[in-house]
Specification:
single chain, alpha+beta, 3 domains, 13 strands, extended, binds zinc ion
């Protein structure tokens, strides 16, 4: 193998730098001049771990079609590893501190091509010889190829959603439970036993009382059990629970607990402190807890964890979203977790979903009433549909008369 000298100072990702620090590297006898800075460097051509990490980082930061040769049409390019496109290293890139000249760039690519699986694109549960079918049949897969792994939904997620559209959940449950069980130890997990959270409900009590001779009405918050999850027999299905399953939702702050109710201004709510006595681990999908590319975690697993997290962070929009979140919920529960923790869409806080409401209790005398003083809205500009096309007109003549057309 031709030698290739590249020192750790000329590599950007910490993930790769850390590989240099391993003992194996320090034993390397072949020291030469780094191709970028000219400093003393090891020969990376015999260090599979370093080469594989360079490839993993390319996949993380660049969509597949960018690291295959441009003039060879996708998806064919995915099957011909010898035509890798070396141009990423010739530009400012996410891997090296400085671009390489085209000859060195080609040499580095040849080295990666010979020693790693840069072209062995992982597809969950699909054997390599079947890959071409998927490429043509499944648009979502093409979308995956067009995004870098750091932005793409995991293929596992896409296939799960597709399977749930076409099968009863219990027909595919074992397959996905096994797949997730094999990587679950890499997922961030925390213990929340003894922690205090908040739970809110719209409304309060209003009861008549007698004060000496005077009859009057007083307001007071919902009390104790009234602040907890409804019993299973009246629980309707929700984002994470099937009909007849009662899960408990609590938040880390009063504001988040209230915001999750999406109340109107002036609305009066009851709120209480809820203490956890569940000793199980909870899966932690908060952005601040997620593994990064610089962690040791396998890049495909990283992609799966991040796509689950972004799914939980989004409000559910399609019916299928409920199928998916209920399905994942079942799997996590079967794998012995107490529930999941995820960022609130409404505030900067977070929510806890517990599968075991009886392992939480309302802190005595903590119930209070609160009034919603204001609600904050965030808006984004959207495209005016009238500017999207040229030479168009409204199909309905009356609407055409009123709003005109583009022609
Ligand atoms: Zn260097």
């Amino acid at each position: 193998m031709e030698r290739f000298y590249l020192c750790e100072n000329c590599i950007k990702p910490l993930r790769i730098k850390n590989k240099y620090k391993s003992d194996i590297v320090s034993l390397n006898k072949n020291v030469g001049k780094c191709i970028i800075c000219g400093g003393s460097s090891i020969d990376i051509s015999s260090h599979y771990n370093i080469l594989q990490d360079i490839v993993d980082c390319i996949r993380f930061y660049y969509p597949v079609y960018r690291y295959f040769r441009k003039d060879f049409p996708f998806p064919y390019s995915a099957y011909f590893p010898h035509i890798l496109n070396p141009y990423i290293f010739e530009e400012d890139n996410e891997i090296l501190t400085k671009p390489l000249d085209s000859q060195s760039s080609k040499r580095l690519y040849d080295l990666l091509d010979d020693t790693t699986n840069i072209h062995d694109i992982e597809i969950f549960d699909i054997i390599r010889s079947d890959k071409y079918k998927i490429l043509f049949e499944k648009l979502s897969y093409v979308a995956h190829m067009e995004l870098p792994l750091k932005e793409a939904d995991s293929v596992l997620m896409q296939m799960m959603q597709n399977d749930l559209r076409n099968h009863n959940y219990y027909e595919v449950e074992e397959k996905y439970t096994d797949a997730i069980a094999s990587i679950i130890s890499e997922f961030p997990q925390i213990n929340i036993n003894r922690k205090i959270f908040y739970r809110a409900r719209v409304g309060h009590h209003n009861e008549s009382i007698a004060v000496d001779d005077l009859d009057t009405m007083i307001d007071f918050p919902y009390i104790e059990e009234e602040m907890m999850a409804p019993p299973p027999y009246i629980a309707s299905s929700g984002r994470f629970n099937r009909q007849g399953c009662a899960f408990l939702y609590v938040a880390n702050s009063k504001t988040t607990a209230i915001a999750e109710l999406k109340p109107y201004v002036g609305c009066v709510c009851s709120i209480a402190k809820i203490r956890c006595r569940d000793k199980r681990s909870y899966l932690d999908f908060r952005a601040s807890s997620l593994p990064q590319i610089d962690d040791k975690i396998n890049i495909v697993t990283l992609n799966i964890i991040r796509s689950f997290a972004s799914f939980f962070h989004k409000p559910a929009v399609q019916d299928n979203d409920y199928l998916t979140s209920q399905f994942l919920s079942d799997i996590f529960r079967k794998l012995q977790f107490g529930g999941i923790i995820y960022d609130s869409v409404q505030t900067k806080g977070y929510n806890v979903l517990s599968y075991y409401p009886s392992d939480f209790y309302c802190v005595k005398k903590s119930e209070k009433m609160v009034e919603v003083k204001s609600v904050v809205y965030k808006i984004n500009d959207m495209q005016d549909g009238r500017n999207k096309y040229e030479h168009w007109y409204f199909n309905d003549e009356k609407i055409e008369e009123k709003y005109g057309s583009d022609t």
